[in-house]
Amino acid sequence: MADALSVIPASVLRNLSDKLYEKRKNAALEIEGILKQLASAGDHDKISAVINLLAKEFTYSALSNHRKGGLIGLAAATVALSSEAAQHLEQIVPPVLNSLSDQDSRVRYYACEALYNIAKIVRGDFIIFFNQIFDALCKLSADSDPNVQSAAHLLDRLVKDIVTESDQFSIEEFIPLLRERMNVLNPYVRQFLVGWITVLDSVPDIDMLGFLPDFLDGLFNMLSDSSHEIRQQADSALSEFLQEIKNSPSVDYGRMTEILVQRAASPDEFTRLTAITWINEFVKLGGDQLVPYYADILGAILPCISDKEEKIRVVARETNEELRSIKADPAEGFDIGAILSIARRQLDSEWEATRIEALHWISTLLDRHRAEVLCFLNDIFDTLLKALSDSSDEVVLLVLDIHACIAQDPPHFRQLVVFLVHNFRVDHSLLERRGALIIRRLCVLLDAERVYRELSTILEGEADLDFACIMVQALNLILLTSSELSELRELLKQSLGNAAGKDLFVSLYASWCHSPMAIISLCLLAQTYQHASSVIQSLVEEDINVKFLVQLDKMIRLLETPVFTYLRLQLLEPGRHLWLLKVLYGLLMLLPQQSAAFKILRTRLKTVPLYSFNGDKLKRASSGNSYNQNLHYSGSQIIEDGGINQDNGNLHKGINFASRLQQFQQMQQQHRMLEKSHAQARKCTKKEGPEAVESQRPSTSSRRGPG
């Protein structure tokens, strides 16, 4: 201290702390001259003493004018020392850096000015303080005083120039500081940071691309800034980096992919679009590097396929197709389970397009990696079954395609049909809304006979009789009306003359017993008319209820459809098909006379001719005549179910109709008992209602009248 005081006159030190800027400036010029002389003499001890005096007695003083004087003095000292200033920077710079955070805005301003002048002199030697200077400038960029901000901007530009020309700058040391600042929300700080990222990226010797994962998320964060200028700057920086990625032979896609996947779900539209665009490029460029991230990428793409913004939807669809076209192998890290998990979750999406693409992925994986997918079947099967209740027909059809693919294996086929029946049981609305669509599609994909046989086997032992009846009626209606089941109907028509048809008839009969009308329809389809007549005759009073009449009405209308054209044509030969006539008249007798179905059937029966076409008179089929009477057909005889028993023998003798009738009657008896129990339960419930309460009130044997 004594050495410094002996070198610097007291008047100069006094003026250095004066409130007037001019006096402080003149004092600094005098100090500059003194230090130049000391530098020429090589007296660095005294130089250090002077710098130490300026720092401790002035820049760290409690008085603001002293601090201002100390800052201008340190800048003057640096100018004086010129090329020799580098060896004293450890003394000069720290006090100035400390003043950048001074409470007095004027002190902060002079600190910026002093640091600017120091940096101009020492240039590259200044780099050792870069991180501290960057940290200070980051704060000053958002300073409340516009003059300080302006001074900080000048200093910032100079520091950028120094860094770009220096070979001492350490990007490795700088990146942690940058990463720490990237999530700051202040717009001035954001502009400051983007500016530095852009400048450093422009320096050929600095590999900013290699450190992009460290600050990529921060740049994406700025895309949703309220300031248009900041969004534009961030977008420009990102576009430049994406171009560099395209041209670079080595890129760390993994870490950046994790960031992009998160940003693809951003509530900000511009951020989503930018993220999905980057993902699109990554899928095209990444190759094997991206294999472990396919599930994450798919999780980002699928929701964007249904984005409200068309640009995002277009890029997402393109990316999805690109990703699906890549044939990755599990041995390369392709995680099938993870992909299936993503697809399964997206089946719960509210957007139809997303659900459809999720199903396409499951279908693709089944096609390429069937064995591996089946290992995860328990994880996705319930979700796929639930998807059968989807509001979209396209989704339901795709789900059925997947189910059919899975069900190629017999155990899975059985599991599918069992679960399907279970779903119909717990959700009757599904059967009403989607039953026909589901059953018809499965019949196309998995062979109608196989599907119907399995359904019949399951329903035969169904404990819920009411559901079994409803299900059988639905299956029967599909059988009679769907074009997809035409071959099955043709096979059933041959039940009396074909072993396969007979076997199918017997197989369906067991479950069709749950519904009288279903059995009668099946018999009409199989042309087992005498048995149909026996079924009608076996019906009792309890069977003829509203539900029965509704089903009967439907069947009478079905008789007028093309499916039963063969039956109506058989009425042209009433002599050969007397049992058919008896069935139709039996149905007519069951119908209320005022019903539309009664009028339809009666009108049809009125058109039945009374004479055969071979010219011989046909006896009228009166109620007293036997249906087994011989008719005028050469070499032929009427047989029990309306067919012709030719010389080759009775081909339908394998069907034990007596046993079938007993089977039907036993099943109907179970239904009657169930209905009685339901009626009893309703009766008990009714008794427990208001009437029961009324009956529990105290009653009086007599009431007094008025007077």
Automatic annotation (TrEMBL):
<feature type="region of interest" description="Disordered">
    <location>
        <begin position="670"/>
        <end position="707"/>
    </location>
</feature>
<comment type="similarity">
    <text>Belongs to the VAC14 family.</text>
</comment>
<keyword id="KW-0677">Repeat</keyword>
<feature type="domain" description="Vacuolar protein 14 C-terminal Fig4-binding">
    <location>
        <begin position="429"/>
        <end position="608"/>
    </location>
</feature>
<feature type="compositionally biased region" description="Polar residues">
    <location>
        <begin position="696"/>
        <end position="707"/>
    </location>
</feature>
<dbReference type="Pfam" id="PF11916">
    <property type="entry name" value="Vac14_Fig4_bd"/>
</dbReference>
<dbReference type="InterPro" id="IPR016024">
    <property type="entry name" value="ARM-type_fold"/>
</dbReference>
<dbReference type="GO" id="GO:0006661">
    <property type="term" value="P:phosphatidylinositol biosynthetic process"/>
</dbReference>
<dbReference type="Pfam" id="PF12755">
    <property type="entry name" value="Vac14_Fab1_bd"/>
</dbReference>
<dbReference type="InterPro" id="IPR011989">
    <property type="entry name" value="ARM-like"/>
</dbReference>
<dbReference type="InterPro" id="IPR021133">
    <property type="entry name" value="HEAT_type_2"/>
</dbReference>
<dbReference type="InterPro" id="IPR026825">
    <property type="entry name" value="Vac14"/>
</dbReference>
<protein>
    <recommendedName>
        <fullName>Vacuolar protein 14 C-terminal Fig4-binding domain-containing protein</fullName>
    </recommendedName>
</protein>
<dbReference type="GO" id="GO:0010008">
    <property type="term" value="C:endosome membrane"/>
</dbReference>
<feature type="repeat" description="HEAT">
    <location>
        <begin position="92"/>
        <end position="127"/>
    </location>
</feature>
<dbReference type="GO" id="GO:0070772">
    <property type="term" value="C:PAS complex"/>
</dbReference>
<keyword id="KW-0472">Membrane</keyword>
<dbReference type="InterPro" id="IPR021841">
    <property type="entry name" value="VAC14_Fig4p-bd"/>
</dbReference>
